Automatic annotation (TrEMBL):
<comment type="subunit">
    <text>Homodimer.</text>
</comment>
<comment type="function">
    <text>Catalyzes the reversible conversion of ribose-5-phosphate to ribulose 5-phosphate.</text>
</comment>
<feature type="binding site">
    <location>
        <position position="129"/>
    </location>
    <ligand>
        <name>substrate</name>
    </ligand>
</feature>
<feature type="binding site">
    <location>
        <begin position="89"/>
        <end position="92"/>
    </location>
    <ligand>
        <name>substrate</name>
    </ligand>
</feature>
<dbReference type="InterPro" id="IPR004788">
    <property type="entry name" value="Ribose5P_isomerase_type_A"/>
</dbReference>
<feature type="binding site">
    <location>
        <begin position="102"/>
        <end position="105"/>
    </location>
    <ligand>
        <name>substrate</name>
    </ligand>
</feature>
<comment type="similarity">
    <text>Belongs to the ribose 5-phosphate isomerase family.</text>
</comment>
<dbReference type="GO" id="GO:0009052">
    <property type="term" value="P:pentose-phosphate shunt, non-oxidative branch"/>
</dbReference>
<dbReference type="InterPro" id="IPR037171">
    <property type="entry name" value="NagB/RpiA_transferase-like"/>
</dbReference>
<protein>
    <recommendedName>
        <fullName>Ribose-5-phosphate isomerase A</fullName>
        <ecNumber>5.3.1.6</ecNumber>
    </recommendedName>
</protein>
<dbReference type="GO" id="GO:0006014">
    <property type="term" value="P:D-ribose metabolic process"/>
</dbReference>
<feature type="binding site">
    <location>
        <begin position="33"/>
        <end position="36"/>
    </location>
    <ligand>
        <name>substrate</name>
    </ligand>
</feature>
<feature type="active site" description="Proton acceptor">
    <location>
        <position position="111"/>
    </location>
</feature>
<keyword id="KW-0413">Isomerase</keyword>
<dbReference type="InterPro" id="IPR020672">
    <property type="entry name" value="Ribose5P_isomerase_typA_subgr"/>
</dbReference>
<dbReference type="Pfam" id="PF06026">
    <property type="entry name" value="Rib_5-P_isom_A"/>
</dbReference>
<dbReference type="GO" id="GO:0005829">
    <property type="term" value="C:cytosol"/>
</dbReference>
Amino acid sequence: MAGELSPIDKAKFVAAKRAAQFVEDGMRVGLGTGSTAAWLVRCLGEMVRDDGLRIKGVPTSSRTAELARGVGIEVISLDEAKWLDLTIDGADEFDGSLNLIKGGGGALLQEKIVATASDQMVVIADIGKEVESLGAFPLPVEVIPFGWQTTQALIEETLISMDVLGRTSTLRMNGDVPYITDEGNHILDLHLNRIGNARQLALVINQMPGVVENGLFIDICDAVVIGYGDGRVEVRDINDGTVATERLDFVESDNLFSDLSD
Ligand SMILES: O=C[C@H](O)[C@H](O)[C@H](O)COP(=O)(O)O
């Protein structure tokens, strides 16, 4: 029931519901991963089922692919789509320039490839994800399993030489075993506290042997839809500088909202 959802879940839901309005008939859409993106996929599934919306979705993880198929969205690969009209995804942090940390759910690699292959990327997030400076959320870095400890040591040494605060990293675990991404890799989470120069850090990390990709999304996101627990949503567009706030009045009555609480 709607009343059982936390304010954060309500915020994620309204952000996703509002962002779904950006999706037009015939579009090829990148489908993000995570709890906020899952709301988006459900909203789009409802639009496909009830409004006859025809879209082709490119999922950014096996989890999202399964959910998208389950709600009736036609799923295609990025190679089939080649280029996307729009990608909508969650984020772990976003700053005032709409630079992001992503990968808290382990899907950063496919997410970055898909977002970069899109005309537009829209992030959906609850207001708690906004930060003045990126880095309080541990920065995920996808590394190949071969020699991961050597890669980790190299990353840590480099962070020290760059005088980046924090300097520790941990191998992400799934219970007692290392977490494995969809691409068969591991994730190192870098505990940095605050990232001064995110652009430089992203470039330096990606130059290291063993690193596949990092979770910093710089100059990729075009707009953010921010949800609040009371049903308000704010849409900020970095390209034209517009900010619009509205309240979605369907919160308590929406079928998805009352049926699902994941
Ligand atoms: O790897 C996961 C993704 O980058 C997610 O989009 C990110 O972690 C945000 O997830 P959530 O919406 O569950 O907070």
